[in-house]
Specification:
Elements: E1 18-22, E2 27-32, E3 37-50, E4 53-57, E5 61-65, E6 70-86, E7 95-99, H1 102-111, H2 113-120, E8 124-126, H3 134-143, H4 150-157, H5 161-172, H6 176-192, H7 199-205, H8 211-222, H9 226-241
Antiparallel strand pairs: 1-6, 2-6, 3-4, 3-5, 3-6, 5-7, 7-8
Length: 242
C-alpha cells in the first residue's frame, strides 16, 4: 500500500517501484494499491483478474491500474519479470496496453524511474486481450448494476447458481456481491473528485442503501471518508493552479 491518492508522490518512490521477479506458478491473492501505476511485463507472463477485467499478460504488455483498484495474479510456469512504474496521475484508463518500444522503457528505468514513468504514457498502444467468458460477462454486469439476482443471471446463462458464485470467486478472488460493492465504492471515490453532487444524491445515484452505507464502503476502500476525499481533491486542484 502507500499514500492515498490518485497517483504516487514522484519525489518519494513507493517500495514496490522498479523490477520485480516472480517464480514459477506464483500466485498473488487479490489486493489493492492506493497508487496508480503501470506494470510492464519484461519476460514470462501471468493471468491478471482485476477491477478492469481479466487479461493474459505477456512480454511487452503494460497493465495500467488506477488508484484504489484491486487485482489478483496467477503466474505462468515460466514465472515473470515485471517493471512496476508509479504514475504521478492516472491520465490513462485502466486496462491492457502494449509498449511501442519496451526496451527503451526498460533502459530508461535503469537510469531513472521517474523519467520512465513519464515516457510510458507516450508509449502506450491499446490491446484487446481481455478474456470474455462468463466470469468476465458477470463482472461487467455487476459493474453496470445489471444483476439483481445471481440465480436469475445464472439461469439465463444456463449455469447453476452455486457454480457461478464459486467460479467467480476463483476467477476474481472475491464473491460477486463483494465485487459489486467494491466497484460502487471505487466509482464513488472517482466521482467525489469531479462531481459537485451532494453526498446523499451521489449515494442514491450509485445504488448505495444510503449515505452512511456509501461512507462505510468508501472508507473501507480508500481509508478516507467521502468528505475527506472531496476536500483533498479540492486542495490538490488549488495547489496545481498555483
Amino acid at each position: 500500500m502507500g499514500k492515498t491518492g490518485r497517483g504516487a508522490n514522484i519525489e518519494t518512490l513507493p517500495f514496490w517501484a522498479g523490477m520485480a521477479a516472480y517464480g514459477r506458478g506464483d500466485q498473488i491473492e487479490r489486493h489493492r494499491h492506493d497508487y496508480a501505476y503501470a506494470a510492464l511485463v519484461v519476460s514470462g507472463g501471468y493471468l491478471e483478474a482485476g477491477d478492469a477485467g481479466r487479461f493474459h499478460v505477456e512480454p511487452g504488455h503494460i497493465v495500467i491500474h488506477e488508484a484504489h483498484e484491486a487485482h489478483q495474479d496467477r503466474f505462468h510456469p515460466t514465472g515473470a519479470r515485471v517493471l512496476n512504474l508509479p504514475l504521478a496521475e492516472s491520465a490513462v484508463a485502466a486496462g491492457l496496453y502494449r509498449a511501442s518500444e519496451p526496451d527503451l522503457l526498460i533502459r530508461t528505468a535503469e537510469r531513472d524511474l521517474h523519467a520512465a514513468s513519464q515516457l510510458l504514457q507516450a508509449e502506450l498502444i491499446p490491446e484487446t486481450g481481455m478474456l470474455n467468458d462468463w466470469p468476465d460477462l458477470l463482472a461487467e454486469a455487476l459493474k453496470q448494476d445489471m444483476v439483481f439476482s445471481l440465480s436469475d443471471w445464472a439461469e439465463t446463462m444456463g449455469l447453476a447458481p452455486q457454480s457461478v458464485s464459486r467460479g467467480f470467486r476463483i476467477a476474481y478472488g472475491v464473491s460477486p456481491k463483494a465485487f459489486r460493492a467494491e466497484h460502487r465504492a471505487l466509482r464513488a471515490v472517482r466521482m467525489l473528485s469531479t462531481s459537485a453532487t451532494s453526498m446523499a444524491e451521489l449515494a442514491a445515484e450509485l445504488g448505495f442503501a444510503d449515505q452512511a452505507h456509501m461512507t462505510r464502503l468508501v472508507r473501507r476502500l480508500s481509508g478516507r471518508t467521502p468528505g475527506s476525499l472531496r476536500v483533498h481533491s479540492v486542495q490538490e486542484a488549488g495547489s496545481e493552479e498555483r
